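User: For my dataset I need records formatted as: sequence, then structure tokens, nothing else. Please produce one.
Assistant:
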Amino acid sequence: MADAAFAHPRLAALYDPLDPDRGDLDAYLRMAREFGARRVLDIGCGTGVFALLLADEGIDVVGVDPAGASLDVARAKPGAGRVHWIEGDATDLPPLTADLATMTANVAQAIAEPGAWQATLRGAHAALRPGGRLVFETRDPARRAWETWTREQSYVRAGVPGAGTVESWHEVTAVDGPLVSFRTTYVFASDGEVLTSDSTLRFREREEVEADLADHGYELEDVRDAPDRPGREFVFVARRPWRQDNPRRNMRERA
């Protein structure tokens, strides 16, 4: 199930206004261009910010997310009709031959349960054409990002169109090995309503991710830095191997 921050209609409508700077997506857009991607699967597309950036480039996009309220926000945006939106996860996809599959922001870490993570890697692999790439980011556990998730350091007070003034902040509720749980609180000045959303992220070591990719049939092509957060995240670029049954065809496909 999706966290309330994404699944509750009143909270899903706050996602974009409370986090308006999406410069983190620039690197993914550059990679889509670098790889010449014409068909992209955006896993955990949320409110559709990245999917619509891709559509603006003339790319055929499928956006999938388990949170219906977030998809409602995405579908209401200008140009949303150019994207194929699916409520679900990487196991709920029609047959695809995507050039690129992406998990931006915290999506990979939010898939915290091992079985769900393995199913996501399998689903993305099946959706990619031979030679297609999976790209996603995950925070470096050594940087202990959760230590800044306090009310004092995360507090935001903003005016949101249609919602009025909203206050929000994060507080860590548990750290259990690689799992970090936290609660986000939202206070609506217009009517005094207080809503909370509980989340758990998995902080995977680089070696763990590399092993998971290999176990699910990917070839690791690169591990990059996040340009907007240097030294704090790993950006994995993994490829679905080319078919081995017809070398001549493989050579043509690579050309």
